[in-house]
Amino acid sequence: MKKILAAVTAPDIIRVIDEACKKYTSYFDFDICSDTDEIIKYINYELPEIKVIDFTSTRIDSRQILESISADPWLHNGGIIAVVADMEERKEIEEQKNANILIVQTKRQFADNFSRLLHILWLNQQFLFSRGMQGQLGTSESGSFICGNDPIDIQVYTSFLLNYLYSSNRIDTEIRSKLHTVLMELLFNALEHGNCGISYEEKTEWLEKGNDILALIKQKAQLDENKKKHIYISYEISGTKAEFSIRDEGAGFDWRSRVKKEVTPGMHGMGIHISENLVSDMTYNEKGNEVRFFVSLAGKGAANTVPLIMSPYQAVDYADKETVCLQNERTNNLFFIVSGKYAVYSGRKLVSILTPNDLFIGEMSFLLNDRRSATILSVGHGKLIKIPKEAFLNLLRKNPHYGIFLSKLLAQRLYVQTQKTMALNKELAELREKENQK
Q1: What is the pTM assigned to this prediction?
Q2: What is the DSSP track for 38-57?
Q3: What does the pLDDT look like over 291-314, one tens digit per residue?
Q4: An example Gene Ontology cellular component term from the record (predicted)?
């Protein structure tokens, strides 16, 4: 069961959330808060996966809530759905490029789309938790989405991919902005010119009349020949790069002449050339209905954003194979992982590798007042923030919700370890059964 916080005062928005959640009672539960301080407190302590924030409310300071979440990297799990008054405010919020916002909707759009949005979120919930289990995944990940002929699908899936890469420390803000531009451009090309068959000339004529392109897309998408068409998005994320493929079910286009064509500033038509300059090795299939490209990554778990309240503590740089702590020594410090990789040895046996996605080193012995259970060595260069026990306890007293976050982190690690143990036990039982059958 995932929790939704409705930071909302408008009855019509509350009604939309209530009706949508009734369709997914086994998956989502929601609470309503209408006071700014209570909302911030709820987010700090309950850590809801989805936050619906009503920017139209005069009783809620939505900007303060957004700033509180943005200022604290430990609250960046899940995502925010921002509800605004009009398209002008939507544009203003979108231009802030806040990594925590999944999507911005006007009240009308929210009423039309929220139920579908919940369905998409549930089907792809792994993208809501870019700080938890991702640290336990392998070095290469791949997946795919089937996107309908609806601009909201494009916005949501683009946000999912960007937030996942950004929050798992694979891309920085600059690459995130470039990738956002490319994905939106190519996905809308697949929708407009691919599945909906809108020609360059038709789009030009439509825009010159002052019309909204989304209205033309909606009109074309409802035609019988286009209703069942989809856009297929696939990705593969390795240690050094992320590759993307976007394929539509349209007739394709003469991409060779389009790529060679000289760029002329105008209302539209420059997107392909702009995209080529922002990513690497953009290629098309022969038909012209599929495009592939990749972006370079910083590497999984490259660096963590340091919470502001940790900035007073000592930052320590480590060279390759330098000792962080020794097995059986007394526990006096907790380490927050800013960057690098760290090998965990029990005796002479390598047990695990820690990265910034693991957040901490030594939290178990720290919390249990026990001696270190393992020796930690740096793998390559890295940086840790060294937090004395007394200072961390004072930090928790001032920010008790961090204790909840730490408990959640430990519970996730325990869950993963339990799953591994169960899998090993199953394998062992199968081997024994085979042995007994001989």
Answers
A1: 0.56
A2: HHHHHHHHH--SEEEEETT-
A3: 999 988 865 555 565 665 666 778
A4: cytosol
